[in-house]
Amino acid sequence: METTTLYAEATGLLSQTWMLVGLPLFGAALLLLLGRRADRWGHWLGCATVGATFVLGLSMFFALAGLENKSVQRSLWDFIAVGDLKVDFGLLYDPLAAVFVLLITGVGFLIHVYAVGYMAHDPGRRRFFAYFNLFVAAMLLLVLGNNFVMLYFGWEGVGLASYLLISFWYTKPAAATAGKKAFLMNRVGDAGFAVAIFLMLATLGTTQYDKVFANVGALAGGTVLAMGLLLLLGACGKSGQFPLQAWLPDAMEGPTPVSALIHAATMVTAGVYLIARSNPIFSANETLQLIVVLVGAVTLLMGCVIGSAKDGIKRVLAWSTVSQIGYMFVGVGLGGAAYALAIVHLLAHGFFKANMFLGAGSVMHGMDDEEDIRRYGGLARHMKVTWITFATGWLAILGLFPFSGFFSKEPIIVAAYTGHGWRPWVIGTATLLGAGLTAFYMTRLFVLTFHGPARWKEGTHPHESPKIMTIPLVLLSIGSVAAGGLMASSVPQWLEPTLGRHEEGHAVLGHWTLTILATLVTLLGAGLAWALFRNGTATQEQPAGPLVTAARKNLYTDAFNEVVFEKPGVFLTRALVWLDNRGIDGVVNGLAAAVGGGSGRLRRLQNGFVRSYATSMLTGALLVVGAFLAIQMGWLS
Amino acid sequence: MTLQLPPIAYGAIAPLLVMFGAACLGVLVEAFVPRRLRYAFQLMLAMGSLLAALVLIVVRSQGADYAVVTAGRALSIDGPTLFLQGGIVVLGMVALLLISERSLETGGPFVAQAAVTAGSDIDRRQAAHAAGGTEVYPLVSFAIFGMAMFVAANDLLTMFIALEVFSLPLYLLCALARRRRLLSQEAAVKYFLLGAYASAFFLFGMALVYGFVGSAGTDGSVGVTFAEINAAALSPTRGTGLLYAGLAMIAVGLLFKAAAAPFHVWTPDVYQGAPTPVTAFMAACTKVAAFGALLRVFHAGFSANSWEYRPVLGGIAVLTMLVGAILAVTQTDIKRLLAYSSIANAGYLLVGVLAFNKSGLASTMFYVVAYGFSVLAAFAVVSIVRDGDGEATHLSRWAGLGKRSPGYAAVFTFLLLAFAGLPLTSGFTAKFAVFGAAVEGDQAWLVVAGVVTSMVLAFPYLRVVVLMWLSEPGEQTPSVSIPGLATSMALAVGVLATALLGVAPQPVLDLTDTAAQFLR
Questions:
Q1: Residue at A548 is within a domain
Q2: How does it assemble (chain B) (predicted)?
């Protein structure tokens, strides 16, 4: 598939794409540099920069829509220029980037506004908004870069912002540890991504998207496979996919708006963006695509199972995020028309998951920061707005008609049933099963929180959150209801210039059959949960069978990590320290002692007497003259 | 017999004339201007003449065909000459700032009457009260003039005369320290004796080379120029024994000035005994002059046989680096430590010289000037760390300085890191340039020696850093005196140049690259 990308000229508004990154970056810099002086109004500045970026992004979106070639590329300056290696600081604004810009700034703006209320009593609110703006800037750079190095730059930037925000309450040991865990696990993925970039430079000599994609077909199959697997490793790290999923649920130690924006709506979907953006690389190798699909399928089931056994409201949502991104990975792994489906699901998920996270924050706000859903119950009467908005998010993730999940998830299930041999049956069934499990754990969460008998701790007086928090909730819930339906056919069409036009394949089961099947499975899961939990649950952990115990322990993945990586790692460190102390230090210390001793002996020659000095000069001169004459005689050549 | 005066390009030698005139005028000022006005007069005269010379050099270098051989082919004003003269003049001005500092100590760092018996009552009185002698300024002016002529000399005789013109004032300057008079006088005598000894080698070598060339003036010159030497070496008419023995002796004379092993022995004693501003002046300007001359002699005069004698000089370079690095390890006096560091740096500079290519010439010129700025700043810091008895140069006294005076300790740390060759300092750029040139010239073994000794040399530098920052200040730790305007300016220029040539060296690298073309 050889395509040449046609670019429109970067004129007028579209020549100013740098402003999209620049505005929030400016906000972050100002807030960090001004320090306490900005404490009183800093949060409004933080909202304003993101709001302005959203307006800018929206006008650029319409400007781009009016163009024939829907792609604008602009090189700002030479970022790296060493010998043959040349990397531009270049931006690319195309349909894919445009929808991401809208998601990041639109949802980001609402969450910023919400955070003004949520963080009202926190002494570090200005610092929080500085990091938040920094995150938005880095995320925009990630989606707007025109080469993989820019993407990596933004990638690391969002990683940094995420680290700073997870451990925002750094005095809390759990938060500090979670920050470190996220950082370390991301390093594993980032190392893979970095090596992928080196591989590109070594084989293609460039990292610019259009040049890489135009030449990837000429590479050997093994090289493409390696490049793709390394990119996938990076994507898995950032998006919390198997086997690098463990950090994402822990990341919920950060403030709730962080979980909503970074660890649900935007940053964790960067892996999906990376694969969708590199679609020519992934489409070039079928093995690679299969691996992506399998990673997605495993993760989506794992997230569902673990999510069903968790009791913290944010933990359940976090595992749900892991699982939903699994769906997106299945989508981008299937390739062809499914790339666009994954993006649609990503956008729809951004709305309803942000909605539910903020709803969870609102619940916690009214319940004295209690996170345990076993300690909730009957909150529907006390928090009407939160209840209704959360309900829309719940229905959306379930995928019931006409809520947005129906239009975004169901097509992925249909796509998973497309193909030949065993693949559609295994993968399709996994996605179908996932839909049922999703319905089960989300309904459990919803019922235990808002319905049934109250199981509150003593002295808790639940109350609705202030307007500044509920208004973003309402807006996001409108998105949860409508986004899917609106985007289902328009977005794939809009993305055609980036992702290509593809014919839909033929599913092994009929379209209608699958729709009915999915709805049935969903209703079954939801009904089961309703029946089990409508009368509340025990407030303490109960003994359980092997499956539930395993799910509570994250399916032993943490134990696996400990045995396979941590223990040998600690052993390796100790062995290296031992080797360093005994072997290397011994050699180095010996050398140092030799130099010191030599120095002490040589020093005695410097005795301060002119006669000795003159003698040494004479000896030196004789040697030099002797050597020169020896050369002249031909003795030394 | 009538003497036919050769035509002289006055425009080209105007900087030299200005400096020479100002130096002579300085002697007259000493004789006729009242004592209390002399300091201001002398300082302005010296500074003004250097500034004028610098302007003339810059203007000259902007011309289209600035390169010319003039004065009976005795002087060659070409790219390297102008660059090195500019370097000497700028570094000389910075050194002059240090020399003129009078706020650190009553009357400045120099003694009023150097001839008074050291340790006598009169000597103690004048050390405590009398203002320093102002003969220093004409002496420095003569020295700078001599150095500027040294790098321009196009024949060996002119070179020898210039060598003596700048050496004699330096011997005297070494003896003028206000404190520790005996050490200062001892340093001057040692420097003089060994300097005379080295000059004798140079002179004898010159005679042998003249004997080899046989005839003078074939190209319209007065003396035996490098062009004639080069031509004779290419098609020898007599035995080349004279040529090789002569070149060896000339090399000995020049390597002495450059402080290369085994002709370095004077360096630590003289650096320690001389007044610190004079040490700074020698470490910066003499180095530039010596390497300017070495480059011209080897690249312009004796390049025909370079591949034959290069291994011998390579051995000297390696020995110099080793001696400088290893001996620096056990030094306990900061001035001696910097002296050994200066010896090791002579080794690195030789690596650049021995590349025997255009980039070797360019990188050596860059290195020597960049090093000059760093070493001036380092000695400026040494001159302000002091107590009631003058400068506190013993290293044990510097313990905990970082806690007493974090600002100056930070500056000194930066300079030490520059000497150690860390990136973002001029030390890194300069070493990188000379090593790169040496690799290009197939002298990888010298680069290996350079890198290994750099590692050894990092130890003494870092030891001082550790001492300053990680030791607790003791009773003996002196405080840093507030430097006067002059020292502050010198320090600022040195540190800024070190940082700038590390961060954005390209303009100066380009300049040395375009200048790197000898005219013989």
A1: no
A2: NDH-1 is composed of 14 different subunits. Subunits NuoA, H, J, K, L, M, N constitute the membrane sector of the complex.
A117: left (phi over 0), alpha (psi -120 to 50) or beta: alpha
State whether A610 and B190 contact (CB < 8 Å): yes
One-letter amino acid at A382 equals H
Query: Which residue of A624, A631, A633, A635 to mutate against B (max B Cβ within 10 Å)?
Result: A624
Do residues A388 and A463 both lie within one domain? yes
d(CA B103, CA B109): 10
A344, A493: one domain: yes
| Cβ-based burial of A479 (10 A; exposed 0-12, middle 13-18, buried ≥19) | buried
pLDDT band at B72 (very low <50, low <70, confident <90, very high): confident
Residues A311 and A416 in one domain: yes
**A241 shares its domain with A138:** yes
Domain ranges of chain B: 10-515
CB contact under 8 A, A617 and B249: no
* Residue B21 pLDDT exceeds 90: yes
> How many CB pairs (< 8 A) connect A and B?
88
Q: Is the pLDDT of residue B199 over 80?
A: yes
**Same domain flag for A203 and A164:** yes
ipTM confidence score? 0.88
Domain membership flag for residue A544: no
For A6-161, where are the E strands, in sequence order?
72-82, 85-93
- Helix, strand, coil % over all residues of chain A, rounded to 5: 75, 5, 20
How confident is residue A4, by pLDDT bands cut at 50, 70 and 90?
low
Q: Which positions in chain B touch A636 (Cβ < 8 Å)?
A: 311
Least CB–CB distance from B251: residue in A596, A624, A629: A624
Judging contacts by C-beta atoms under 8 Å, the chain A residues touching residue B326 are 595, 598-599, 602
Mean pLDDT of chain B: 90
Cross-chain CB nearest to B194 (options A603, A606, A614): A614
CB contact under 8 A, B190 and A631: no
Q: Looking at per-residue confidence, does B286 or B7 come out higher?
A: B286
Nearest to A93 by CA among A61, A54, A59: A61
User: Which residue of A587, A602, A609, A610 is the best one to mutate when testing the B interface, meaning the one whose CB has the most B CBs within 10 A?
Assistant: A610
Give the pair of three-digit tokens for residue A265: 């709506």
In a domain, A546, yes or no: no
Gap from A87 CA to chain B (nearest CA, Å): 21
The number of distinct structural domains making up chain A is 4
Q: Does A617 contact B269 at a Cβ distance shorter than 8 Å?
A: no
Assess whether pLDDT exceeds 50 at residue B12: yes
Q: Do residue A245 and residue A304 come from a single domain?
A: no
User: What is the share, in percent, of chain A residues with pLDDT greater than 90?
Assistant: 29
- Domain carrying residue A565: 553-604
Q: Measuring CA to CA, which residue among B200, B355, B349, B351 is closest to residue B286?
A: B349
| B497 CA to centre of own chain | 17
Last residue of a domain, one of A284, A315, A350: A284
3-class secondary-structure state, position B391: strand
The residue in chain B having the minimum alpha-carbon distance to the alpha carbon of residue A628 is: B244
Q: What is the mean pLDDT of residues A520-542?
A: 85
Which of B319, B326, B343, B453 to probe the A interface (max A CBs under 10 A)? Answer: B326
Calculate the average pLDDT of chain A.
87
